[in-house]
Design brief:
Blueprint: H1 10-13, H2 57-67, E1 74-77, H3 79-91, E2 98-101, H4 108-116, E3 119-122, H5 139-147, E4 152-156, H6 168-178, E5 183-187, H7 200-205, E6 209-214, E7 227-230, H8 233-242, H9 250-259, H10 262-287, E8 292-295, E9 302-307, H11 313-319, E10 336-340, H12 344-355
Parallel strand pairs: 2-3, 2-4, 4-5, 5-6
Antiparallel strand pairs: 1-7, 6-7, 8-9, 9-10
The structure holds pyridoxal-5'-phosphate (PLP).
Pyridoxal-5'-phosphate is lined by residues 79-81, 106, 156, 160, 187, 189, 214, 216, 222, 227.
């Protein structure tokens, strides 16, 4: 196992963390300058007049249990977006270090790198006329980025926006090659919608492999902003010093605790089954539409399609009151659209908007 912290920003390894005031249930709290009264309408268990715990330890335990990892291998973050930010801030010194990304992919890796002043090595996904092999990782290109000294390698599987998955063998090759040189971040935001194996085994084998998970998609909690970074305990502890205390709010803690109980998980799992079968139905229906020439096989809760120039998919959807995702900033994706899977009724509405003959002028 490599010394994973050797890759961290040296000045942050010496960072003296903030020491928060103590909190002990049953004691009078006159140490943190909070209001002694609850706000009208405050129905939270803890009381919103009190700061949340510096780190949501009970939630850490619950999420660790759900993801099958020890609590000290998991950092709760405000969405997995914050985990991306903390990783880049923790490992990349501005104007010196860089990350590698595999476009087309989640654009926030770029945004957080730009905010931090980190360089970006782009290793585009490989294209192929064969749908099953399209958007594969360019392993040689990523190897070259390791040689060039990138600190973090972001792999997204299933990938946003393509919905495609990276081959397990490719991910393993990259993880082996990066040991001692770079952290491999496998973003598994859409993991629960996929029938393929997750990367937990790789994470256990390699202390430089980090996984990102989120409750934004699976348990219908995008508004709560709860994500998780799963990694080696030493790396998690280090990133815990980079992430300020008190960042995870009390209402979010209490709502997630409720949502991660048996009944809610049962409902979430039933919905996953619906999303998967609707994804198959939507894929098949879209493939039958003359104006659409490609629908990539998706393992996520969306489908990615390529539209023929004469087909006004976006406008047709808009006229039916439906928004789909276009990629105005990316010239390689000008003819592509990402469509999130809705309820069966939502999907029917979209299908009807796309299949209705155009009204004559
Ligand atoms: C691949 C990927 N990673 C991370 C995120 C961030 O999700 P959140 O911050 O809601 O957890 C998203 C959001 O869409 C995503 O598509």
């Amino acid at each position: 196992m490599s010394d994973v912290l050797a890759l961290a920003r040296p000045e942050l390894r010496k960072l003296k963390p903030y020491v928060p005031g103590d909190y002990e249930p049953g004691t009078l709290r006159m140490n943190t300058n909070e209001s002694p009264w609850r706000a009208p309408g405050d129905t939270t268990e803890r009381g919103l007049n009190r700061y949340p715990p510096p780190r949501p330890t009970a939630l850490n335990e619950r999420l660790g249990e759900y993801y099958g990892v020890a609590p000290n291998e998991l950092l709760v973050t405000r969405g997995s977006s914050e985990a991306i930010d903390v990783l880049i801030r923790g490992f990349c010194t501005a104007d010196r270090d860089s990350i590698s990304i595999c476009p087309p992919t989640f654009d926030m890796y770029r945004v957080y790198a730009d905010i931090q002043g980190a360089g970006i090595v782009r290793v585009p996904l490989r294209r192929n006329d064969d749908l099953a092999a399209d958007f594969a990782l360019d392993v040689d290109g990523i190897m070259a980025s390791i040689e060039a000294g990138v600190k973090l390698i972001f792999l997204c599987t299933p990938n946003n926006p393509t919905g495609t998955t990276a081959s397990a063998a490719d991910i393993e090759t990259i993880c082996s090659a990066a040991e001692g040189s770079a952290i491999v971040v496998v973003d598994e935001a859409y993991r629960e919608f996929s029938s393929e194996k997750d990367c937990r085994e790789l994470r256990q084998r390699f202390n430089h492999v980090v996984l990102l998970r989120t409750l934004s998609k699976y348990v219908s909690l995008a508004g709560v902003r709860c994500g998780a970074l799963i990694g080696d305990p030493a790396l998690v502890e280090f990133l815990g010093t980079v992430l300020p205390p008190y960042t995870f709010p009390t209402p979010s803690i209490e709502l997630v605790q409720q949502a991660m109980q048996g009944d809610s998980i049962g409902v979430a799992n039933e919905r996953i089954a619906i999303i998967r079968s609707e994804r198959a139905r939507l894929t098949e229906t879209l493939l039958g539409i003359d104006g659409i020439d490609r629908v990539w096989p998706s393992q996520a809760n969306f489908v990615f399609v390529r539209v023929k120039p004469r087909f006004d998919l976006v406008d047709r959807a808009r006229r039916a009151g439906i928004l789909v995702r276009v990629f105005a900033n990316d010239t390689t994706l000008n003819d592509c659209v990402r469509i999130s899977i809705g309820t069966p009724e939502h999907n029917d509405r979209l299908i009807s908007a796309l299949t209705q003959p155009e009204a004559s002028p």
